[in-house]
């Protein structure tokens, strides 16, 4: 379920990101795909108690499939982890119509459009957070735990909640009615180098499940 509605798809706050998304050329393995090339919505349980916030859609992941954490390695780590702890009905996220159902969890990105080199500007992060991420947070009436993945997502959440702390993997911060549980991003840059291993990722998810009482 997309919490912010179709108005997201016509967002034009960040021309640089829009132009970049339209310039992406599909590699041979995706040559038959009609790329989404619009702001990418989050999805999940509208009654979620856990919100996972990533950086932005991947060029050939969410920007291709039209759904956050779908069709790329980061999405596979997120969804397989949720499946292992009983909060997803299947271990893969491949397309918008793959039948994936998340329980107690909603997933989204701090920035809704794919940025060049995965590096949105601070202005783009702020615009997206103040226009879209805050609406998702406010729409989740049962939300208890927010997991920002990496420094950019942590910065985005900090802007909205007034968090005054530095990013640190595993750090827990109580902000009003929310618990913020920071994690390294599940990007290949972190997982392939061992900066984030599978067991440490599962520890984050299990801790979130415990805090949220899912």
Compose a concise summary of this entry.
The protein is α/β, with parallel strands linked by helices. Helix content is 35%, strand content 11%. It has a single domain (7-212), classed as Uracil-DNA glycosylase-like domain (Uracil-DNA Glycosylase, subunit E).
Description:
It is a single chain. This protein has 214 residues and is an alpha/beta fold. It has a single domain (7-212), classed as 3-Layer(aba) Sandwich (Uracil-DNA Glycosylase, subunit E), CATH 3.40.470.10. The protein is built from seven helices and six strands; from the N terminus they run H-E-E-H-H-E-H-E-H-E-E-H-H. It has helices at 15-23, 62-65, 73-84, 122-139, 150-161, 188-191, 198-212, and strands spanning 43-44, 50-54, 105-109, 145-148, 172-175, 178-181. It has a six-stranded mixed beta sheet. A hairpin with a 2-residue loop joins strand 5 and strand 6 (178-181). Helix 3 packs across helix 7 (198-212) and helix 4 (122-139) crosses helix 5. The protein is globular and about 40 Å long. The mean pLDDT is 96.
């Amino acid at each position: 379920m997309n919490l912010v509605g179709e108005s997201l798809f016509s967002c034009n706050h960040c021309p640089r990101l829009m132009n970049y998304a339209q310039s992406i050329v599909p590699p041979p393995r995706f040559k038959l795909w009609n790329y989404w090339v619009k702001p990418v919505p989050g999805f999940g349980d509208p009654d979620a108690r856990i919100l996972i916030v990533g950086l932005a859609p991947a060029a050939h992941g969410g920007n291709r499939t039209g759904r956050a954490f779908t069709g790329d390695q980061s999405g596979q780590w997120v969804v397989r982890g949720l499946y292992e702890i009983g909060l997803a009905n299947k271990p893969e996220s491949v397309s918008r119509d793959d039948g994936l159902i998340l329980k107690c969890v909603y997933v989204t990105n701090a920035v809704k459009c794919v940025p060049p080199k995965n590096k949105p500007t601070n202005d783009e992060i702020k615009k997206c957070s103040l226009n879209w991420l805050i609406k998702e947070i406010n729409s989740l009436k049962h939300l208890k735990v927010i997991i920002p993945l990496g420094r950019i997502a942590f910065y985005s959440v900090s802007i909205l909640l007034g968090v005054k702390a530095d990013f640190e993997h595993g750090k827990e911060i109580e902000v009003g009615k929310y618990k913020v549980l920071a994690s390294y991003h599940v990007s290949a840059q972190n997982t392939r180098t061992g900066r984030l291993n599978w067991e440490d990722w599962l520890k984050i998810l299990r801790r979130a499940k415990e805090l949220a009482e899912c």
